[in-house]
Amino acid sequence: MKRGLFYLAVGALFGITMFKSEAASWFRIYEMFQFKSFHMYGIIGSALFLGVIIMQLINRGKIKTFDGEQIVVPPKDMSVPRYLIGGLFFGLGWALAGACPGPMFTLTGAGYWPILVVIGGALIGTWVYGLLRSKLPH
Amino acid sequence: MDWIYEPWPWYVAGPMIALIMLILLMAGKNFGMSANLRTFCTIAGAGKTSDFFRFDWKAQKWNMLVVAGAVIGGYIAMNFLSKDPVVALHPEVVIQLNEMGFEGAGTSYLPANLFSAEAFENPVTLGLLLLGGFLVGFGARYAGGCTSGHAISGMSSLQLPSLIAVIGFFAGGLIMINFLFPLIF
User: Fold this and answer.
1) In this complex, do B7 and A22 lie within 8 Å of one another by their Cβ atoms?
2) Which residues of B touch A17 (CB under 8 A)?
C-alpha cells in the first residue's frame, strides 16, 4: 500500500513535469524536429547530463538502493538493425502523433480525449510487434 | 501566485526527469514507459497469440502505478497548475503550421484539428492518430524502449544500443516532418 502510493506519486510528478514543461505538446515536438527551439534539447540534454553523473556515482557505489544494495542497470544486447529500424518506426510515430508513451497518458489525464485513439494505436502496434517478432531482423 | 501557472523552463524539467529516474533506480526499478504497453497487451490476453506476451505481468505492477500517476499528474497540471495553457512557439513555426492548416499554433497547447472533440468526427484524423500511435507502439517494442528507456536511461549509462535507437528516433522524426507531412497535410 505504502509502496503503491510511492509509485503513484513518482508518476504524478512525472506527469506534471511532462505537461508543465510542454514536452507533452504536439507543437513542441514539431518545433524540435524543425530545430527551431532549444527547449526540448535543453530538457533532454540537462536530464542526460545529470543522468550520466548519477550513473557514474552508481557505478562507483556512491548511490545505493533505499535498501542499501548496489543498483544494477541491465546492459542492452548489441545490435544495429533492431535499434535503428525500431527507432525509425518510433520516430515516425513520435512526430506524427506528437507524443511518446509517457505524455500519451499525461494528456489523457489533461482531458484531450483524441489521445485515447493514439494509445489504442500504440497497443495495437505493440501487439503486432509481438506477432511478427520472430520474422523481424533483430 | 501567478508564477504557478507559467510553463516550466527546460532547466527545471530536465533535472526533474533525472530526479525521477534516480528515485526509481533507488527503488530498484528501471525508468521505461513503453514497457507498460506490453503489460496492457498481456492483461488483455495477448499471451494467447504470441509468447512475447507470456510473462508475469504482476512484476510490472509498480510501472502501471507510475502510469496511473502520470494520468493523475496530467489532470493536476491541467486543472490546478495551468490557466488556458499556450505553447509559445518560434514565430516561423507558427507560420509554417498555419500554412499547412494546423489550428491553434502559438495560441493553444495542442493542434485543435488533431486533438479537439472535432477529431472524432473526421475519419482521416482518426486514422492519422491511430497510425501515429501504432508506429510509436511498434517502434518502441522493436527498439526495446522509448524516450524514457533509451534517450534518458540508456544514454545516461552510456549504452551504444540506446544511442543507435535515439539516432533512429530522430531520423524517423525528420523523415516524417520534412518528407511525409507535405504529403499528408
Assistant:
1) yes
2) 8, 13, 16-17, 20, 73
B1 falls in which pLDDT band (50, 70, 90)? low
pLDDT score at A2: 85
> How many structural domains is chain B composed of?
1
Q: How far apart are CA A123 and CA A116, in angstroms?
A: 10
Per-residue pLDDT tens for B42-69? Answer: 999 999 999 999 999 999 999 999 999 9
- First-to-last CA distance in chain A? 39
The 10 Å CB-count burial string (b at 16+, else e) for B70-93 is bbbbbbbbbeebbeebbbebbeeb
Which domain covers residue B41, as residue numbers? 1-83
For residue B20, is it within any domain? yes
Residue B155 is assigned to a structural domain of this protein? no
Residue B55 Cα, gap to closest chain A Cα (Å): 13
Distance in Å, alpha carbon of B80 to nearest chain A alpha carbon: 10
DSSP H or E run through A57? helix A39-59
Residue A50 is nearest to which of B15, B49, B97, comparing CB atoms? B15
Task: Say how many CB pairs under 8 Å bridge A and B.
Answer: 493
